[in-house]
Write a structure and sequence with these properties.
By secondary structure, the protein is of the alpha/beta class. The protein is built from eleven helices and 20 strands. It folds into three domains: about 10-70, PUA domain (Archaeosine Trna-guanine Transglycosylase, Chain: A, domain 4, Roll), CATH 2.30.130; about 80-190, RNA methyltransferase domain (HRMD) like (Transcription Regulator spoIIAA), CATH 3.30.750; about 210-400, 3-Layer(aba) Sandwich (Rossmann fold). It comes from Hallerella succinigenes.
Length: about 400
């Protein structure tokens, strides 16, 4: 093995396959030994048991994902120019897909972590504000460089660090939520999605402020809402409901456990000029609400199930699968004749084939004959590298019952 100027992570025999196929993660169990004493976030070489170069990675001493690969090319400095090229590529790719980084009201994901070449870094644009999650020690090491480059290339009004996810704890990183550039208002930021106005609380909203990954699904499901009674479960600030109203829904029932989220949903109805008489806001646990509707024999023409992640780890897979089965069973029993169900999972460990099987089993137990009309995934600003299937976390089905 040639002498290296940086620490070297040597893999166990046979564990080089994923890296040789450009997968960006090296787990602790794949490592035979480490040459040198890398600190958290240091750049290391990754080599096979036979000494072949596999890539340059950020090293983590805390996470089970011990190395996150920056590049698979030798003699590539991991420096400002490296990240400048990555951000340029991400910007140009978004422009090609119809996302304008300089549109003062647009909202989309600019950097999608591993899938855009910066493992553990998510950059979401809300109007003229960038909201950023840093979830790995490698991205943490270069965070200041990343912020400076984003300012140069995007010219945002402000940049907010939403580094308050518990995922950071697994990397041994502190939790933070702070403005790191310019001005980030405490009041919600207005952005426009497919003609609908939204107010996004970047400081306190879910994730980086909102669920940008459901953009396409909100628009496509809304097209089926005309003259229908729509039930939007786990409604958050009412995105699916607003697009249902835009398409002429007869009545929209928004159900969420958060009083604050429903208050924002209420304000957005007025902001977009919809009739509040066509909307019912319900503060309730969704499972309990669905059981109440079942017991009272209430039905709906279109139901949306967009729950939070049910599966955090492999040990939760069986329990999470039961949760998806139960909630889809309840919803299917509430569908009116020819009714539709848009059902989703954002659990990365829930593969589409398994999700479809769970929904099919729920339909059998509900004694409903259903057809799949559409399948949903992440929009084009949430790309998935073919070498990183874990990046495909969002999946959904649109069903219609007899």
């Amino acid at each position: 093995m040639a002498k290296s100027e940086v620490p070297v992570v040597v893999l166990n025999a046979g564990k080089e396959k994923s890296a040789s196929r450009n997968h960006p993660w090296i787990f602790s169990g794949a490592i035979h030994h480490v040459v040198g004493e890398p600190k958290a976030g240091d750049t290391v070489e990754v080599r096979s048991a036979h000494g072949e170069f596999l890539g340059l990675a950020a090293y983590s001493s805390e996470s089970q994902i011990r190395c996150r690969l920056w590049t698979f090319q030798e003699r590539t400095p991991i420096d400002r120019d490296f990240f400048s090229k990555i951000i340029d590529r991400a910007i140009n790719n978004r422009l090609c897909r119809g996302f304008d980084v300089h549109d003062p009201k647009s909202a989309f994901r600019l950097i999608n972590a591993e899938n855009d070449g910066i493992p553990g870094c998510i950059v979401d644009k809300y109007a003229d504000i960038l909201s950023i999650e840093i979830l790995s020690v490698g991205a943490e090491r270069f965070r200041q460089t990343l912020y400076e480059l984003l300012v140069e290339k995007i010219h945002p009004r402000g940049i907010l660090e939403r580094c308050d996810s518990d995922v950071r704890v697994k990397e041994g990183l502190p939790l933070r939520k702070q403005t790191v550039y310019g001005d980030v208002p405490k009041i919600p930021v207005e952005m426009i999605e497919n003609g609908i106005k939204f107010d996004v609380d970047v400081w306190n909203g879910h994730k980086t402020g909102y669920y940008l990954d459901q953009r396409d699904a909100r628009f496509n499901v809304g097209k089926y809402a005309k003259a229908k009674h729509v039930l939007n479960c786990f409604s958050y600030t009412g995105g699916f409901g607003l697009f249902a109203l835009q398409n002429g829904a007869k009545l929209v029932t928004e159900v969420d456990v958060s009083k604050d989220a429903l208050a924002i949903a209420d304000s957005l109805i007025q902001k977009n000029g919809f009739d509040k008489a066509n909307v019912e806001l319900v503060e309730a646990d969704v499972f309990a609400y669905l059981r109440k509707c079942r017991d009272s024999r209430k039905t709906f023409d279109l139901i949306v199930l967009d729950p939070p992640k049910f599966i955090e780890s492999k040990s939760h897979l069986e329990k999470g699968a039961r949760g998806y089965k139960d909630i889809n069973l309840l919803a299917l029993k509430l569908l009116a004749p020819h009714g539709m169900l848009a059902t989703f999972s954002c659990s990365g460990l829930m593969e589409m084939n398994l999700f479809q099987k769970i929904v099919a089993d729920a339909a059998l137990d509900a004694h409903r004959n259903v057809q799949i009309i559409e399948r949903f995934g992440q929009p084009s600003d949430h790309p998935v590298k073919t070498s990183f299937p874990e990046g495909q976390y969002l999946k959904g089905l649109l069903l219609q019952a007899d």
